[in-house]
Amino acid sequence: MSTMIDQAKKILKTVFGYDGFIYLQEDVIGNILRKNDTLVIMPTGGGKSLCYQIPALIFKGLTIVVSPLISLMKDQVEQLMESGVSAVLLNSSLTPYEYRRNVERVKQGKVKLLYVAPESLLKSSVLEMLSSVPVDCLAIDEAHCISAWGHDFRPEYRRLVGVRLRFPQAVSIALTATATPRVRKDIKSSLGFEDSGEYVAGFNRENLFLQVVSKDNPLDQTIEFIRKFPEQSGIIYCFTRRQVDDLYSDLKDKGFSVRPYHAGLTEIERKQNQSLFIRDDVQIIVATIAFGMGINKPNVRFVVHFDMPKNMESYYQEIGRAGRDGLPAHCMLLFSYADIHKITHFINKKNAPEKRVAHIHFNAFLRFVETDDCRRVPLLNYFGEEYSIEKCNMCDNCLAGEKELADLTVPAQKFLSCVKRTGEVFGMGHIIDVLRGSRARKVLKFGHDRLSTYGIGKEFSKKEWMILARQFLHKKLLTQDMEYGSLKLTDKAWDVFQNRETVLGYLKKQDDDKEVEKESKIKSTPDHDKDLFEILRKKRKNLADDAGVPPYVIFSDRTLIEMASYFPQTMESFLDIHGVGIVKREKYGSIFLGLIRKYCGDRQIK
Ligand code: ADP
Ligand code: ZN
Q: Is the pTM of this model over 0.85?
């Protein structure tokens, strides 16, 4: 066994160019090599692919990889071929000639990895073909598709059990980034896995900087933000198609390299925009949540949420598209009370049981948005993980330092008594209108301009009151009806009335400009020679265009960054660079070494 793991490590270095395993890779690979069925739960960027790719190179027979996403399959096959691994795919995107050629190669035993869509694998012709081929491993990617509890249920996946029984000598590995225990259980029971073969990696993505900014002037805020990432890829998520179109044209007018993406575009337009982005021809995609499935681009350096996501899962999935290469990436969410309103309204349109669940999920997300502690605490808690490090130093709150607590007892008393006077049936907006002495129709209609609390809160703006009221909610002085938003007092509120309890909190959110300044000090990439990096990047782009593949298939950014910081001069030292295996060295070594040597020669860098 130990020799097999040694062999796995050797392949890791010589084929893929990496120095060591990350997260649970080594354990998972060991378990697969012992032919134990395995379920792997790892966040995006956790390195799931190598968990079956390396065993595939050690096993004598074939490894079948089932994946629902054609673009991802194509991507992986291209990447494997660049590293000299024989992999093919079978799906509906191939021409009849390509299809037959791939089938032939599999039959002749010339292929180590076969990527197939589930519906292709279930075809009798394909199963027939495979019956004469020794199969050692069946890998099921995006395994949550097997569960009706997952966010992407695909009935074909249910039928994979039958396929599995056809290859009794093959070990199965199921992989997903979906964490919920319910889905996990479903996958295992559907596939007949034992409990012991479950590997769950932590969900913390350490390289993502998390920031929540209050949304004042979203266009300017966004522009200021993306200016900090010249020529670096990023995604901006909006709530509606219309918002996407508007923001897209605003950014285009300002001269940004940007394309839109949403379900209202034609399929051709969508494909084209996605491909321009993946190939580094376009810097920014403005999109609805329709964008992202099947995006394997490792060097997305920022994700902006122009509007609030509906829940933690969507948020986590969307920020998860940043920084898959493990280098730092920046996630900024613009948050406003108007957005809360919009989403609540949207949720209220659902039918009863769904509505309840959606409210619960949305409220959990609000806890993340409004927390003053490390953002990783509510985020990871949501996924059932305890986060025990005191400061992550990769979120706005951890960098903000101590905020000064203010005594909010008086504003709390004003607010709470206004809730009481109006009969505990109104929402925040109305209470604030009364406090601020508004002449709004609703205020007059209920005669609330005659209450003793009318107009006693003019010292705060509407927005400031919102921030205060949310804090009172957090401190459980009030409860809020999930559906209608109406506020009610709790027992704790009475203690505040009677001055038995002081309310401490924050009068104003810290100046956002200051926060932005602070986080911008975080380095987005490690130290390296920027000019050389640009030269290498151009070369990579040319090579990629010639080969008709995305640039990251040739080399990742991290690989180029290492070249531009270590200046390798020989074929031997070139192999030490992250992501350079033997085949890639043969293919590209002399080209890149040539550029590095010339650069060093011109500037007399040793
Ligand atoms: P996932 O499928 O879990 O999202 P991938 O398999 O695409 O993750 O891997 C994410 C990134 O991490 C890829 O760019 C991959 O090349 C890199 N990677 C995977 N394993 C290692 C390793 N052992 N050392 C360094 N980088 C790795
Ligand atoms: Zn933190």
A: no
